[in-house]
Amino acid sequence: MLDQGRISAQQLSLLLYSTVLATVILQAPAIMAKHAERDLYLSPVWAAFAGLLVIWLSMALHRYFPKRTVIGYSSVLLGRWGGRLLGSVLLFFYLHINSLNLRQYGEFIVGTVLPRTPLLFVMGCMMLVCMYAASGGIESIGRASQMFVPVVVVLLLIVLLLLIPDLDPKLVPPIMERGLKPSLMGSIPAQSWYSELFLMAFLLPYVSDPEKVIRRSSLYAFLGVLATLVLTGIWSLMLFGNTVSRQMYPLMSAAEYISLAGFLQHLEALILAVWISVMFIKITMIHYVVCLGAAEWLRLSGFRQLVVPLGFLTLVFAVWAAPNQQELAGFLGSIVPMYGLLVRLVLPLLLWAAAAVFHGRRGRGGQELQP
Hints:
The chain is mainly alpha-helical.
C-alpha cells in the first residue's frame, strides 16, 4: 500500500458525489439542452444505467482484487506490458481531464469575478492548494469532503428553494413531446458524467468498511448525482424555457433572479462558493489518484514525491488545453463525453470480461486472483 491512510464508506460517497457535482453544477443543463431541448430533465434518467454499470464493474473488479487498484490488477489481467500500457492510458487520461478541470475553473473565475487577474495566476493558486491537500493523503481529502460537501448541499438547496417564486411550470412541456430521440441524445454527456464514478476503482483498497456498506454508500452517491441533475435541469427549464442552451452558466444566471423582501438579492456568491468548494475537492482527488497511480505504475515506495512535478505538469496541460473559453466549452460538450465513456466505461468492461474469462465469475475464498 502506497498510502497508509484509510477512509470510511461515507467519505467515499461524499468524494464521489462532489467529484461529479463539480463538473455538472454549472454547465450541465445547457449541455443537455443542446441535444434534449426541453426534455433535458429526462436525459439523466436514461443515462442512469451507465452510472449503475460503472459502480457494479468497480465493485466486481474489487472483489477479484481487494488489495489492488485498477493500475495493479491491470497487470495481472493483461500481463506486464499490456497492464503497463493500460495504466499509462488511464494515467494520461486523468492527468488530461484534471488539466481541463483546472482550466475550466480558471476561465470561470476570470470571466465572472476576477477579469483583470491573469489566468495562469488563478490556476496556479488553485493547483498549489490542491497539491498541498493531496500530499496529506486520502484521509485528509476524505475529511475535507466531510467538512465541505454537507455545507455545499445546504447552500445549493437554499438557492433552489429561493428560486421557487420565479419558476414557471408552464415552460415544462409534455413529456417527450418530440419523441424519445432528443432526450436520448442529451443522455450521452450525462453518461460521461456518471462514468466519473469509476474513480472509486482507485480508492476501494483504502476504504475500511465492509463491501456491503461500500456498495450502499456508492449507490447514495449515484442517487445524489441523479437528483442533482434532474433538479437543476427542471429548475433551469422553468426559469429559462427554450433559452437554456444559450446560457453559459444557467445556475449562476438563475441566482440573479433571487429577490427576497427587496434586500436578499443577487446570490451568485453562494453558487460561486458552492462550485469552488467542490472543484477544490475534485481537482485534489484526481491529482491524488494520478500521483498514487503513477507511483504504482513506476513501482515507487511512495506517492508524495510525485505531487509537485505532476502538479506543475497539470498546470502546463491546463494552459495548453484550449486557446479560449469558447473552444474549451465546445471541447467539453462534444469530445469529452465520448472520450470519458471510452476510458471510464468501455475499458473497465473489458477488464471485467478478462477477469471473468480467466478466473470465473467469483473470487476464490476472498483471496486475490492470480494469473
